[in-house]
Amino acid sequence: MHAWLCEDPVGVDALTWKELPTPQPGKGEVLIRIQAASLNFPDLLIVQNKYQFKPKLPFVPGSEYAGVIEAVGEDVTELKVGQSVACLPGTGGFGTHALAPAKLCMPLPPGFPPADAAAFIMIYATSHHALLDRGQLKAGETVLVLGAAGGVGMSAIQIAKLAGAKVIAAASTDEKCAFCKELGADETINYSTQDLRERLKELTAGKGPDIIYDPVGGDFTEKAFRSIAWRGRHLVIGFAAGDIPAIKINLALVKGASIVGVFWGDFASRESKANAAAMQELAQWYAQGKIKPLIDRQMPMSELKAAYERMNSREVKGKLVMVN
């Protein structure tokens, strides 16, 4: 097998494409021939040693992928050789093969393309857990999605609309705002050229959004939170802007608002039955054509560094997928 190996987590340039022994699955594991792997923001942080999960060196990055099972280990009874699966183990995706815990594999129904499957679990599971579980979104409420043209933003727009919400999508360019409209957003804000708070006042008649979906962080977090509606919920998804913001806690008091942490990975392991039900619902929505990841582009696995560069340039709309 071949894979991109991170031996020193100092950045993307240190990754090397190497031939490695093809591993054999151990107890509870499966060997997957990777067909597609998506590039997510944590995949950048992890090779920079900035992610909360720090794998043992050396490791193969690539948190999410899809492929075909080539071998199964001891005690694996629910999966079989030749079966198509998607997996989100956190590492291992940027190569030709990977070992994965069987319990983290999602069996794919016929007709689920590998590129879609590789771009599915992280963004849709995160947004389902964020909006419907942690945010308790109700039909008729208003959702502000920051970083709306990215992967999780895209999924948040689709799921919020399915729940009957009004969606305001905020992005950094007019092109990205137009993309958000195509995804179903009711209104958009270009926060590079428009004042976020003033535009929110206009679009909500001064009330503010009921839910803020925030995978961005940085300067936008406080600006958005100052505009939140009474009893609003600010969902903390991540910090794509790079800076972790500090909010004065009195703002939550005067707004009667909640700052709600969203960590799907721990939710999935701590509340596995609830997560399994959510994943089943998401798979049904996909089969019914209600949700679908928009692929910015598919690139050969050999061009991983170019894909990282494209993601880091903030040019991506939807998801980047590497294919073998």
TrEMBL record:
<dbReference type="InterPro" id="IPR036291">
    <property type="entry name" value="NAD(P)-bd_dom_sf"/>
</dbReference>
<dbReference type="InterPro" id="IPR002364">
    <property type="entry name" value="Quin_OxRdtase/zeta-crystal_CS"/>
</dbReference>
<dbReference type="InterPro" id="IPR011032">
    <property type="entry name" value="GroES-like_sf"/>
</dbReference>
<dbReference type="InterPro" id="IPR051397">
    <property type="entry name" value="Zn-ADH-like_protein"/>
</dbReference>
<dbReference type="Pfam" id="PF08240">
    <property type="entry name" value="ADH_N"/>
</dbReference>
<protein>
    <submittedName>
        <fullName>NADPH2:quinone reductase</fullName>
        <ecNumber>1.6.5.5</ecNumber>
    </submittedName>
</protein>
<feature type="domain" description="Enoyl reductase (ER)">
    <location>
        <begin position="11"/>
        <end position="322"/>
    </location>
</feature>
<dbReference type="Pfam" id="PF00107">
    <property type="entry name" value="ADH_zinc_N"/>
</dbReference>
<keyword id="KW-0560">Oxidoreductase</keyword>
<dbReference type="InterPro" id="IPR013149">
    <property type="entry name" value="ADH-like_C"/>
</dbReference>
<dbReference type="GO" id="GO:0003960">
    <property type="term" value="F:quinone reductase (NADPH) activity"/>
</dbReference>
<dbReference type="InterPro" id="IPR020843">
    <property type="entry name" value="ER"/>
</dbReference>
<dbReference type="InterPro" id="IPR013154">
    <property type="entry name" value="ADH-like_N"/>
</dbReference>
